[in-house]
Amino acid sequence: MKKLSFTQRLWLPLLLSLVALLVLSVVSAYQLRSTRLEDRQNALHEATDIAMSAIDVFHKQAENGTLSDQDAREKALALVRAMRYGGTGGYLVVIDPNVKLISYGVNPGLENKDASEIHDRNGAYMWRDAVRIASSTGTGSCITTGRSQTNPSHCLN
User: Fold this and answer.
1) N or C terminus of the chain: which is more exposed, having fewer CB within 10 Å?
2) What is the pTM of this model?
């Protein structure tokens, strides 16, 4: 093996440091993304818990006769439509087992319509995935890349 010249020996630690810094930056960025995703999922779970608690109040009022079933349903759906979470435009939806959007506050025009053919930019049928996960595990989330009418999401149980 050839001996390194004085100049090469000076540059070698610098280059190795730069490579190490690059690797550290990539790992750090990946960990930050993972942490932010986890934070968003936690915010969603907390918002869902709050919504379910509020909906339960309307359900109990319907059970004890304070509200009619229809009024309780309408108030609960109005509450869910108005709810936002996370400070980043997060919203809640109500979707039935047949993949019909019952409440969709950010686009009321899609309410009471079949959402089974709606997919994100990568072709993931996000509402089908959400119903599948909710039906099988009761909880979970899907990571989508934004809604698209013409274009798989990563779902976590």
Assistant:
1) N
2) 0.69
